[in-house]
Design a protein that fits this description.
single chain, alpha+beta, Immunoglobulin-like, three-stranded antiparallel sheet
Length: 129
C-alpha cells in the first residue's frame, strides 16, 4: 500500500471512531431522533391511591422541554432513603402500581434521559395499613 492509501485508511478509521463516540454520547433519543440538551425536570403532582395492600402512584409528566426515557421511583423507610426498593417506569408512564406489606414508606421520583437525571421530587408519605 502506498502513502496515500495509508492516509486514506487512517482518515476512515478516525471517522468511524468519531461517529461511534457521537452515537455513544447521544444515547437514547427522543422520537424523531432529537438529542437531549439537558436532564429532564422532575415529575410534578406526585400522589397515590391505595386498594388494600396495593399502592398506585400518579404523577404529571415532566415538561416536554427535554425528553424523558425513564422514571426512577425510590421507596425508603425514612425520608430521602431508598432502602425499600428502586423501581423503573417507562418515560411515557404517569402511574406505577406495586403491592407492599403494611407500613409507612417515603417515596420520591426522578426523571432520566441520555443527558442525566433530574433532581428528586419531594418525598411522598405512603401508608399501607
Amino acid at each position: 500500500m502506498n502513502k496515500n492509501g495509508v492516509i486514506a485508511v487512517v482518515v476512515v478509521v478516525a471517522a468511524v471512531i468519531l461517529v461511534g463516540l457521537w452515537a455513544m454520547r447521544s444515547g437514547e433519543q427522543a422520537p424523531g431522533g432529537v438529542d437531549c440538551n439537558a436532564p429532564p425536570a422532575a415529575p410534578t403532582g406526585v400522589s397515590y391511591t391505595k386498594a388494600g395492600d396495593v399502592a398506585t402512584l400518579h404523577w404529571t409528566a415532566s415538561p416536554e422541554k427535554e425528553y424523558v426515557t425513564t422514571y426512577v421511583i425510590e421507596a425508603g423507610s425514612q425520608p430521602g432513603a431508598n432502602n425499600q426498593g428502586t423501581f423503573v417506569a417507562p418515560g411515557s408512564a404517569t402511574t406505577f402500581q406495586r403491592q407492599a406489606p403494611p407500613g409507612t414508606y417515603y417515596v420520591h421520583m426522578f426523571a432520566r434521559n441520555a443527558c442525566g437525571t433530574s433532581a428528586p421530587t419531594p418525598d411522598l408519605t405512603v401508608v399501607i395499613p
